């Protein structure tokens, strides 16, 4: 299930609007917001709980492997401790090797993110025009 981070105040008006969308109501995606639309330690931990752990519902987490790139929020001590406490095995992909070792990040995730950004920006423009 996609976990999409939008730009906006945490749990603010944009978030409240997004959680009323059909995609969220019908469990097609999970949404979160923060001021710059980037991932944070808190968001990574929420993703682990809501997406990763639920995906492996019937499999012990110590039998799973989580592969992260070397983004700062993936390598933070707080997140690495959180993963270890859940007994999840993890590997950090060295910087510069994401396109080689994580091809889905380049071939699927990037176009998906760009399409979601376009859809979001279009809806914000429509929403602001409708208000005026």
Folded structure, characterized:
With 132 residues, the chain is α/β, with parallel strands linked by helices. 54% of the residues lie in helices and 14% in strands. The chain has helices spanning 13-18, 22-25, 41-55, 72-75, 77-85, 98-101, 103-131, and strands at residues 3-7, 30-34, 65-68, 89-92. α3 runs parallel beside α5. The longest helix is centred in the C-terminal third of the chain and has 29 residues, at 103-131. Residues 128-132 have low confidence and may be disordered.
Low-confidence runs: 128-132
Broad structural category: alpha/beta
**Helical coverage, percent range:** 40-55%
Described by strand count, sense and barrel closure, the largest sheet is: 2 strands, parallel
Put simply, the count of helices is 7
Proportion of beta-strand residues: 5-15%
Separation of the first and last Cα atoms: 35 Å
Q: How many beta-strand elements?
A: 4
- The gyration radius over C-alpha positions equals 16 Å
**Strand line-up across the major sheet:** 1-2
> What oligomeric state do the depicted chains represent?
single chain
- Which geometry do the CA atoms define? globular
The SSE string, one letter per element, is EHHEHEHHEHH
Topology:
Layout: E1 3-7, H1 13-18, H2 22-25, E2 30-34, H3 41-55, E3 65-68, H4 72-75, H5 77-85, E4 89-92, H6 98-101, H7 103-131
Parallel strand pairs: 1-2, 3-4
Helix pairs in contact: 3-5
């Amino acid at each position: 299930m996609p976990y999409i981070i939008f730009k906006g105040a945490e749990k603010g008006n944009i978030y409240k609007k997004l959680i009323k969308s059909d995609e969220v109501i019908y469990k097609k995606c999970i949404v979160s917001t923060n001021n710059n639309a980037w991932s944070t330690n808190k968001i990574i931990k929420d993703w682990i709980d809501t997406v990763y752990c639920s995906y492996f519902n019937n499999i012990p987490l110590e039998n799973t492997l989580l592969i992260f790139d070397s983004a700062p929020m993936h390598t933070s001590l707080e997140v690495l401790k959180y993963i270890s406490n859940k007994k999840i095995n993890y590997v950090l992909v060295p910087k510069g090797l994401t396109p080689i070792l994580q091809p889905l990040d380049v071939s699927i995730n990037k176009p998906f993110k760009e399409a979601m950004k376009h859809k979001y920006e279009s809806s914000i423009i429509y929403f602001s025009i409708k208000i005026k």
